[in-house]
Structure formats: C-alpha cells, structure tokens
C-alpha cells in the first residue's frame, strides 16, 4: 500500500499546484532563514508567481537588506528546493 503522502503528492502534481504550494512555504521558513534580528524587521507579505514581496520596517533596514538579498535568496531556495523563489522585492 502506498503512503498517503505519496498519493497526495501525485494528486497535487496532476493538478499542477506542487510548485505554488512549495513557494508558499517561504512564509513558513522566512524567520528561520533570515534569523531573529532580520526577522523582527521584516515580514513576507505576498507572492506573485515566483517573486516574494517582503515588507521592511524602515528604509535603513531596506538599504541594508539589499546587500544581503542574494544570500537570503540562496538560503531560502536551499530550504524550499532549487530556484523556487526567483527574486525578493523589499517593500
């Protein structure tokens, strides 16, 4: 007998929604990936396709995060699966 998780994954795959579900896990893993200091200053707000929009509490933090964005994107994709999120837009 096949495990329920495998059956569910096959069904979701047939519906074509595995990738969108995987992308939405970015909300779940955000604080784990960025750590507590950045996590306190940011909040993932929405997804548009494979682009994650993140609200930043101040312009100072937004400017700082521009430099950390490639590293955050790499860590997030490592957690989610290869190239799940293509870009992070800081708002």
Task: Give a written overview of the molecule.
This protein is about 65% helix and about 20% strand. The protein has about 90 residues and is α+β, with helices and mostly antiparallel strands. The chain has one domain: DnaA, N-terminal domain (GMP Synthetase, Chain A, domain 3). The protein is elongated.
Task: Give short descriptive properties of this protein.
single chain; 91 residues; alpha+beta; GMP Synthetase, Chain A, domain 3; three-stranded mixed β-sheet; 3 helices; 3 strands; 64% helix
Chain-wise SSE layout:
Elements lengths: L3 H12 L2 H24 E7 L2 E6 L2 H22 L6 E4 L1
Parallel strand pairs: 2-3
Antiparallel strand pairs: 1-2
């Amino acid at each position: 007998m096949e495990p329920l998780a495998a059956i569910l994954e096959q069904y979701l795959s047939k519906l074509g929604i595995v990738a969108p579900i995987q992308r939405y896990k970015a909300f779940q893993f955000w604080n784990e990936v960025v750590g507590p200091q950045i996590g306190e200053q940011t909040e993932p707000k929405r997804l548009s396709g494979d682009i994650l929009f993140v609200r930043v509490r101040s312009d100072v933090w937004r400017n700082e995060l521009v430099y950390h964005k490639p590293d955050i994107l790499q860590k997030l994709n490592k957690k989610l699966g290869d190239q799940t999120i293509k870009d992070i837009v800081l708002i």
